[in-house]
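Just wondering, does anyone understand what follows?

——
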Amino acid sequence: MEVINTSGRRKTSVARIYAAKGKGEITVNGKEYKDYFPTEILRYKVTQALVIAKSEDKYDITATITGGGLTGQAEALRLAIAKAMITVDDELRKAFKTDRLLTRDPRMVERKKPGQKKARKRFQFSKR
């Protein structure tokens, strides 16, 4: 098997991964994923697709992630890993679909409007 190259996105984060046969090491921007993602929830999100595919120790994954915060980056990485697992074994598609791992989450931050404090919050109204 050669190297599989896929990408995933969430909010403003973009994750590009390279997956190859290996011992199950996940490297994110040159660091071990457990060092890069501080909380247990984010680490679970990263490995969720591998756990469902039962291949936690079969592939080495090297990821480059840019933009956004840690949650968006973890979910972008999860989508990229799920796409890579689909290219290896198409039978996993149904299991990933039921857990919504193949759906790109379209929610983005609403833009700030002129004449307001934030997207929806307004400046305080003064009658007099």
